[in-house]
Write the C-alpha cells for this entry.
Amino acid sequence: MTLDAIRSRLAAGAKLHMQLVDGQRVWWFEDPWEQIADGIAERLKAAGEIVELGDSLFGIAGNSQSWVIGGGVADRVRCLIPYCRRTKRASPDLITVDMGGYVAGDTVTADLEEEWICHEHWRAVPMATRRLLAAAKRKVKRVRTLTALLVLSRVWRRAKREAIEGAAGI
C-alpha cells in the first residue's frame, strides 16, 4: 500500500490499528483489512500526520491500538458488532483514576465512550448485565480507583460478548 493511499484512507476517516505480535508492531486498516509496513506508519508518526486515540493499555505513550489523522479524536464511533454499519457522534467520556498503591500520583486515563453498541444490538444484552454495567460506570465515576475501572472493563467485555452472540444468533 502506498503512502498516498494510506493518507487518503486516513483522510476518509479510517482508523489505523496497531498491535504487538512477537515483539513487532503490526499495523492495519479494517473494512477492508489491509496490513501496512511498520516503516510507513513510523514515518507518519514522526511527521505528526497520525496521532494516538489514547486507547493504550496502562497509558504508555506510543502504544495506542488506534491511530487517526490530525486532531486525535474520531468524529464518529461505529457499532462494535461485526458488519453493523451504524455510527454515532463521538463524545469522549474521559475518566482519570488513581492506580492506587503503586507510586503516588500515578494515574490511568480511560475513555468510557470509546466503544459503542447500537440500539438494535444492545437489546440482545440481558437486562441484568445492563444494570450491572450502569452500576459499574457510576462506581468508577464516584470512587475513581483502578479496581473499579477493571470491574467496569470486565462487565463491558461481558456485555460485548453477549451482544455479539445475540447478533450471531448464538
